[in-house]
Amino acid sequence: MDRGRMSQSLKVRIPLERVGVLIGPKGSVKTHIEKRCKVKLWIDSDTGEVEISPTSEIEDPSFLLKAQNIVLAVGRGFSSEKALKLLDDEYLLEIFDLRGFIGRSRKNLMRVKGRIIGERGKTRRII
Questions:
Q1: Is the pTM of this model over 0.90?
Q2: 1-10 own/partner pairs: CB under 8 Å, 24+ apart
Q3: pLDDT tens-digit map of 66-83
Q4: Domains delineated in the chain
């Protein structure tokens, strides 16, 4: 994926099953991210690697980070509609490794995730 401006590019890897969501129908999600953030996305559908590079039109370097957060959110299971809300400065993506708080026990991990998500996603919606 050598595209020239490697020092300014960001790379993210997402699960292969989420690549289609990131691209969207007829490339609509990918195009929307590229236009709004003024970046170029190179998506390797064999590895799930996504390279995010600024275009010459980018005015604010924070758009590069916003594009990265959108890609990460889609990779973590958010719908493209919800991930695109990260374009608004009111929204933020923060990913926690729960294993650092509760250990490696799968049972404890499922219990804590259940509490965070809540009954039918109620707690998650409130957050």
A1: no
A2: 1/42, 1/44, 1/49, 1/51, 3/40, 3/42, 3/51, 3/53, 5/53, 5/54, 8/53, 8/54, 8/64, 9/51, 9/52, 9/53, 9/54, 10/51, 10/52, 10/64, 10/65, 10/67, 10/68
A3: 999 999 999 999 999 999
A4: 6-93 (3.30.1370.10), 96-127 (no CATH)
